[in-house]
Design a protein that fits this description.
The chain has helices at residues 19-27, 42-63, 70-85, 105-114, 134-144, 163-178, 199-203, 208-220, 247-253, 274-290, 306-323; strands at residues 3-9, 93-98, 119-124, 152-155, 188-195, 229-234, 261-266, 296-298. With 324 residues, it is α/β, with parallel strands linked by helices. Strands 2-1-3-4 form a four-stranded parallel beta sheet, sandwiched between helices. Strands 6-5-7-8 form a four-stranded parallel beta sheet, with helices on both faces. It starts with a strand and ends with a helix.
Length: 324
Protein backbone atom coordinates (compact mmCIF):
# COMPACT_ATOMS: atom_id res chain seq x y z
CA UNK A 1 0.00 0.00 0.00
CA UNK A 2 1.19 3.51 -0.82
CA UNK A 3 -1.27 5.81 0.95
CA UNK A 4 -2.14 9.43 0.35
CA UNK A 5 -4.49 11.98 1.89
CA UNK A 6 -6.23 14.66 -0.16
CA UNK A 7 -7.39 17.63 1.93
CA UNK A 8 -10.20 19.70 0.43
CA UNK A 9 -10.99 23.32 1.19
CA UNK A 10 -12.82 26.22 -0.40
CA UNK A 11 -9.84 28.24 -1.63
CA UNK A 12 -9.36 31.97 -1.76
CA UNK A 13 -7.61 34.66 -3.80
CA UNK A 14 -3.94 34.86 -2.91
CA UNK A 15 -3.60 38.40 -4.28
CA UNK A 16 -5.94 41.23 -5.27
CA UNK A 17 -5.72 40.32 -8.95
CA UNK A 18 -7.16 36.89 -8.14
CA UNK A 19 -10.37 38.23 -6.58
CA UNK A 20 -12.56 38.45 -9.69
CA UNK A 21 -11.56 35.05 -11.20
CA UNK A 22 -12.07 33.46 -7.77
CA UNK A 23 -15.57 34.96 -7.55
CA UNK A 24 -16.36 33.78 -11.08
CA UNK A 25 -15.35 30.23 -10.09
CA UNK A 26 -17.47 30.46 -6.94
CA UNK A 27 -20.62 31.71 -8.68
CA UNK A 28 -20.17 29.27 -11.57
CA UNK A 29 -20.98 26.43 -9.16
CA UNK A 30 -24.63 25.49 -9.76
CA UNK A 31 -24.90 24.42 -6.11
CA UNK A 32 -24.19 28.03 -5.10
CA UNK A 33 -26.11 29.84 -7.85
CA UNK A 34 -28.55 27.39 -9.46
CA UNK A 35 -29.75 28.18 -12.99
CA UNK A 36 -31.77 24.99 -13.54
CA UNK A 37 -33.57 25.88 -16.78
CA UNK A 38 -30.77 27.73 -18.59
CA UNK A 39 -27.36 26.23 -17.80
CA UNK A 40 -25.88 28.12 -20.73
CA UNK A 41 -26.41 31.28 -18.63
CA UNK A 42 -24.41 30.00 -15.62
CA UNK A 43 -21.06 31.47 -16.71
CA UNK A 44 -22.40 34.87 -17.89
CA UNK A 45 -24.38 35.19 -14.65
CA UNK A 46 -21.26 34.30 -12.62
CA UNK A 47 -19.29 37.04 -14.42
CA UNK A 48 -22.08 39.54 -13.79
CA UNK A 49 -22.29 38.78 -10.05
CA UNK A 50 -18.49 38.73 -9.73
CA UNK A 51 -18.24 42.14 -11.41
CA UNK A 52 -20.84 43.56 -9.02
CA UNK A 53 -19.01 42.21 -5.95
CA UNK A 54 -15.40 42.61 -7.08
CA UNK A 55 -14.62 46.04 -5.62
CA UNK A 56 -16.22 45.27 -2.26
CA UNK A 57 -14.40 41.91 -2.00
CA UNK A 58 -11.08 43.48 -3.00
CA UNK A 59 -11.53 45.88 -0.07
CA UNK A 60 -11.96 42.98 2.32
CA UNK A 61 -8.78 41.28 1.13
CA UNK A 62 -6.79 44.51 1.19
CA UNK A 63 -7.83 44.91 4.83
CA UNK A 64 -6.31 41.52 5.74
CA UNK A 65 -3.02 41.97 3.92
CA UNK A 66 -3.86 41.68 0.23
CA UNK A 67 -5.04 38.08 -0.08
CA UNK A 68 -6.38 35.00 1.62
CA UNK A 69 -4.02 32.94 3.83
CA UNK A 70 -6.21 29.84 3.34
CA UNK A 71 -3.93 27.94 0.95
CA UNK A 72 -0.87 28.59 3.10
CA UNK A 73 -2.71 27.39 6.22
CA UNK A 74 -4.18 24.34 4.47
CA UNK A 75 -0.73 23.33 3.24
CA UNK A 76 0.61 23.75 6.77
CA UNK A 77 -2.22 21.52 8.06
CA UNK A 78 -1.35 18.94 5.38
CA UNK A 79 2.34 19.02 6.32
CA UNK A 80 1.56 18.69 10.03
CA UNK A 81 -0.80 15.80 9.33
CA UNK A 82 1.78 14.03 7.15
CA UNK A 83 4.45 14.41 9.85
CA UNK A 84 2.07 13.02 12.50
CA UNK A 85 1.42 9.90 10.38
CA UNK A 86 5.06 9.08 9.53
CA UNK A 87 5.44 6.54 12.31
CA UNK A 88 2.39 4.57 11.14
CA UNK A 89 2.81 5.12 7.39
CA UNK A 90 6.34 6.29 6.50
CA UNK A 91 5.54 6.55 2.76
CA UNK A 92 2.27 8.48 3.15
CA UNK A 93 1.93 11.80 1.30
CA UNK A 94 -0.60 14.59 1.67
CA UNK A 95 -2.10 16.80 -1.05
CA UNK A 96 -4.45 19.79 -1.15
CA UNK A 97 -7.29 20.69 -3.53
CA UNK A 98 -9.23 23.94 -3.50
CA UNK A 99 -12.81 24.00 -4.73
CA UNK A 100 -12.75 27.45 -6.30
CA UNK A 101 -9.06 28.23 -6.66
CA UNK A 102 -5.65 26.64 -7.11
CA UNK A 103 -4.47 23.93 -6.74
CA UNK A 104 -7.54 22.33 -8.29
CA UNK A 105 -8.63 18.70 -7.95
CA UNK A 106 -7.12 18.11 -11.40
CA UNK A 107 -3.78 19.54 -10.24
CA UNK A 108 -3.81 17.35 -7.12
CA UNK A 109 -4.72 14.19 -9.05
CA UNK A 110 -1.79 14.70 -11.42
CA UNK A 111 0.57 14.69 -8.42
CA UNK A 112 -1.21 11.72 -6.84
CA UNK A 113 -0.88 9.60 -10.00
CA UNK A 114 2.74 10.64 -10.51
CA UNK A 115 3.54 9.53 -6.93
CA UNK A 116 1.95 6.10 -7.47
CA UNK A 117 -0.61 6.41 -4.65
CA UNK A 118 -2.67 3.20 -4.27
CA UNK A 119 -5.01 4.21 -1.39
CA UNK A 120 -6.33 7.76 -1.17
CA UNK A 121 -8.15 9.15 1.87
CA UNK A 122 -10.46 12.04 0.94
CA UNK A 123 -10.58 14.53 3.82
CA UNK A 124 -12.81 17.61 3.44
CA UNK A 125 -11.86 20.29 5.96
CA UNK A 126 -15.54 20.94 6.69
CA UNK A 127 -16.58 19.19 9.93
CA UNK A 128 -20.30 19.72 9.24
CA UNK A 129 -21.75 18.43 5.99
CA UNK A 130 -23.48 20.70 3.48
CA UNK A 131 -24.06 20.66 -0.24
CA UNK A 132 -22.30 24.06 -0.37
CA UNK A 133 -19.04 22.68 1.04
CA UNK A 134 -18.39 18.96 1.47
CA UNK A 135 -20.82 17.74 -1.18
CA UNK A 136 -19.65 20.37 -3.66
CA UNK A 137 -16.00 19.35 -3.17
CA UNK A 138 -16.85 15.67 -3.59
CA UNK A 139 -18.94 16.43 -6.68
CA UNK A 140 -15.97 18.28 -8.18
CA UNK A 141 -13.63 15.39 -7.31
CA UNK A 142 -15.78 12.66 -8.84
CA UNK A 143 -16.33 14.73 -12.01
CA UNK A 144 -12.56 14.91 -12.52
CA UNK A 145 -11.62 11.42 -11.30
CA UNK A 146 -11.86 8.83 -14.12
CA UNK A 147 -14.43 6.11 -13.50
CA UNK A 148 -11.85 3.51 -14.60
CA UNK A 149 -9.56 4.23 -11.68
CA UNK A 150 -7.09 1.93 -9.97
CA UNK A 151 -6.70 4.03 -6.82
CA UNK A 152 -8.76 2.79 -3.86
CA UNK A 153 -10.73 5.72 -2.43
CA UNK A 154 -11.60 6.24 1.24
CA UNK A 155 -14.00 9.21 1.53
CA UNK A 156 -14.61 10.78 4.95
CA UNK A 157 -17.94 12.50 5.54
CA UNK A 158 -19.18 14.60 8.48
CA UNK A 159 -16.84 14.52 11.45
CA UNK A 160 -18.23 17.34 13.61
CA UNK A 161 -18.74 14.88 16.49
CA UNK A 162 -15.19 13.52 16.52
CA UNK A 163 -13.99 13.72 20.16
CA UNK A 164 -10.59 15.24 19.32
CA UNK A 165 -12.14 17.90 17.10
CA UNK A 166 -14.49 18.85 19.95
CA UNK A 167 -11.56 18.79 22.37
CA UNK A 168 -9.41 20.98 20.11
CA UNK A 169 -12.05 23.68 19.78
CA UNK A 170 -12.99 23.62 23.46
CA UNK A 171 -9.31 24.03 24.39
CA UNK A 172 -9.21 27.27 22.40
CA UNK A 173 -12.57 28.46 23.76
CA UNK A 174 -11.68 27.67 27.38
CA UNK A 175 -8.41 29.56 27.01
CA UNK A 176 -10.34 32.74 26.09
CA UNK A 177 -12.81 32.22 28.95
CA UNK A 178 -9.99 31.72 31.44
CA UNK A 179 -8.22 34.85 30.13
CA UNK A 180 -11.24 37.11 30.80
CA UNK A 181 -10.52 40.04 33.13
CA UNK A 182 -11.90 39.32 36.60
CA UNK A 183 -14.82 41.74 36.23
CA UNK A 184 -16.15 39.76 33.22
CA UNK A 185 -15.72 36.24 34.62
CA UNK A 186 -19.47 36.01 35.30
CA UNK A 187 -20.55 38.65 32.80
CA UNK A 188 -19.91 37.42 29.27
CA UNK A 189 -21.83 36.05 26.32
CA UNK A 190 -20.32 33.13 24.41
CA UNK A 191 -21.42 33.44 20.77
CA UNK A 192 -20.97 30.57 18.33
CA UNK A 193 -20.87 32.23 14.89
CA UNK A 194 -21.33 29.77 12.02
CA UNK A 195 -21.44 30.40 8.29
CA UNK A 196 -25.04 30.87 7.22
CA UNK A 197 -26.94 28.90 4.56
CA UNK A 198 -30.15 29.58 2.66
CA UNK A 199 -33.15 28.24 4.61
CA UNK A 200 -34.39 26.69 1.35
CA UNK A 201 -31.45 24.25 1.40
CA UNK A 202 -32.21 23.19 4.97
CA UNK A 203 -35.86 22.55 4.03
CA UNK A 204 -34.59 20.39 1.16
CA UNK A 205 -32.71 18.19 3.61
CA UNK A 206 -29.26 19.74 4.01
CA UNK A 207 -28.00 18.44 7.41
CA UNK A 208 -25.80 21.46 8.16
CA UNK A 209 -28.02 23.34 10.64
CA UNK A 210 -28.73 20.22 12.71
CA UNK A 211 -25.02 19.36 12.83
CA UNK A 212 -24.11 22.92 13.83
CA UNK A 213 -26.52 22.72 16.78
CA UNK A 214 -25.10 19.33 17.79
CA UNK A 215 -21.55 20.70 17.58
CA UNK A 216 -22.46 23.53 19.99
CA UNK A 217 -23.96 21.13 22.53
CA UNK A 218 -20.97 18.78 22.36
CA UNK A 219 -18.59 21.67 23.02
CA UNK A 220 -20.68 23.11 25.84
CA UNK A 221 -20.47 19.78 27.71
CA UNK A 222 -16.71 20.28 27.93
CA UNK A 223 -16.63 23.97 28.82
CA UNK A 224 -16.42 25.53 32.30
CA UNK A 225 -17.94 28.80 33.42
CA UNK A 226 -20.43 29.35 30.59
CA UNK A 227 -23.69 30.88 31.79
CA UNK A 228 -24.93 32.58 28.61
CA UNK A 229 -24.39 31.18 25.14
CA UNK A 230 -25.92 31.84 21.74
CA UNK A 231 -25.76 30.52 18.17
CA UNK A 232 -25.78 32.97 15.27
CA UNK A 233 -24.89 32.97 11.58
CA UNK A 234 -22.61 35.12 9.47
CA UNK A 235 -21.60 35.69 5.82
CA UNK A 236 -25.11 35.71 4.39
CA UNK A 237 -25.95 37.60 1.22
CA UNK A 238 -29.10 39.35 0.00
CA UNK A 239 -32.19 38.09 -1.80
CA UNK A 240 -32.74 34.69 -0.12
CA UNK A 241 -33.93 33.88 3.39
CA UNK A 242 -30.89 32.70 5.37
CA UNK A 243 -30.44 30.99 8.71
CA UNK A 244 -30.99 33.38 11.62
CA UNK A 245 -30.20 35.25 13.72
CA UNK A 246 -27.31 36.97 12.03
CA UNK A 247 -24.35 37.63 14.31
CA UNK A 248 -24.75 41.41 13.94
CA UNK A 249 -28.48 41.19 14.76
CA UNK A 250 -27.59 39.18 17.86
CA UNK A 251 -25.16 41.91 18.97
CA UNK A 252 -28.05 44.39 18.77
CA UNK A 253 -30.47 42.08 20.56
CA UNK A 254 -28.03 41.67 23.47
CA UNK A 255 -27.08 45.35 23.57
CA UNK A 256 -28.90 45.93 26.87
CA UNK A 257 -26.00 43.90 28.30
CA UNK A 258 -23.19 46.10 27.02
CA UNK A 259 -21.48 45.80 30.38
CA UNK A 260 -20.87 42.17 29.39
CA UNK A 261 -17.92 40.84 27.42
CA UNK A 262 -18.38 38.96 24.13
CA UNK A 263 -16.41 35.87 23.15
CA UNK A 264 -16.91 34.89 19.50
CA UNK A 265 -16.37 31.31 18.32
CA UNK A 266 -15.81 30.89 14.54
CA UNK A 267 -17.72 27.64 14.70
CA UNK A 268 -17.85 26.19 11.18
CA UNK A 269 -14.32 27.26 10.21
CA UNK A 270 -11.12 25.28 10.85
CA UNK A 271 -8.75 27.84 9.29
CA UNK A 272 -8.31 31.59 9.24
CA UNK A 273 -9.59 33.28 6.10
CA UNK A 274 -11.65 36.34 5.14
CA UNK A 275 -14.65 35.33 7.28
CA UNK A 276 -12.53 35.29 10.45
CA UNK A 277 -9.84 37.88 9.68
CA UNK A 278 -12.10 40.52 8.13
CA UNK A 279 -15.71 39.75 8.99
CA UNK A 280 -15.17 38.88 12.67
CA UNK A 281 -11.88 40.59 13.53
CA UNK A 282 -12.55 43.90 11.77
CA UNK A 283 -16.24 44.34 10.90
CA UNK A 284 -17.80 42.66 13.95
CA UNK A 285 -15.26 44.18 16.33
CA UNK A 286 -16.11 47.63 14.99
CA UNK A 287 -19.87 47.04 15.23
CA UNK A 288 -19.63 45.60 18.75
CA UNK A 289 -17.54 48.53 19.99
CA UNK A 290 -20.01 50.98 18.39
CA UNK A 291 -22.82 49.30 20.35
CA UNK A 292 -20.86 49.82 23.57
CA UNK A 293 -19.44 46.36 24.32
CA UNK A 294 -16.25 46.95 26.31
CA UNK A 295 -14.47 43.66 25.66
CA UNK A 296 -14.76 41.56 22.48
CA UNK A 297 -12.50 38.60 21.71
CA UNK A 298 -12.48 35.98 18.97
CA UNK A 299 -11.47 32.43 19.81
CA UNK A 300 -8.38 31.41 17.87
CA UNK A 301 -9.02 29.34 14.74
CA UNK A 302 -7.85 25.74 14.78
CA UNK A 303 -5.28 26.05 11.96
CA UNK A 304 -2.41 23.72 13.00
CA UNK A 305 -3.40 23.42 16.67
CA UNK A 306 -1.91 20.07 17.88
CA UNK A 307 -5.16 18.52 19.15
CA UNK A 308 -6.85 19.41 15.87
CA UNK A 309 -4.07 17.76 13.86
CA UNK A 310 -4.49 14.73 16.15
CA UNK A 311 -8.19 14.68 15.19
CA UNK A 312 -7.31 14.67 11.48
CA UNK A 313 -4.73 11.94 12.11
CA UNK A 314 -7.33 9.80 13.87
CA UNK A 315 -9.79 10.21 10.98
CA UNK A 316 -7.14 9.10 8.48
CA UNK A 317 -5.94 6.16 10.58
CA UNK A 318 -9.49 4.87 10.96
CA UNK A 319 -9.82 4.75 7.17
CA UNK A 320 -6.42 3.25 6.40
CA UNK A 321 -6.52 0.62 9.14
CA UNK A 322 -9.90 -0.45 7.87
CA UNK A 323 -8.34 -0.88 4.43
CA UNK A 324 -5.41 -3.00 5.62
Amino acid sequence: MKPGVLLFNLGGPEKIGDVKPFLVNLFSDPEIIPVPFAKILQKPLAHFIASRRQKMSEGYYRAIGGGSPLLKITRAQAESLEASLKEDYPNLKTYTAMRYWKPSVKDALEEIRKDGITDLVLLPLYPQRSKATMDSSYGDFYRVMPSANSIKLHPIYEWYHHPKYIEAFTENIQREIDALPEKYKNKFHLIFSAHSLPVKWILEGDPYEKQIHETCHLMLKNLRGVQRWHLSYQSRTKYLKWLEPSTLDLFKKLSSDTDHALILVPLSFVSDHVETLYEIDILYQKEAKALGYPYVKRVESLNTQPTFIAALKDLVLNELRGAS
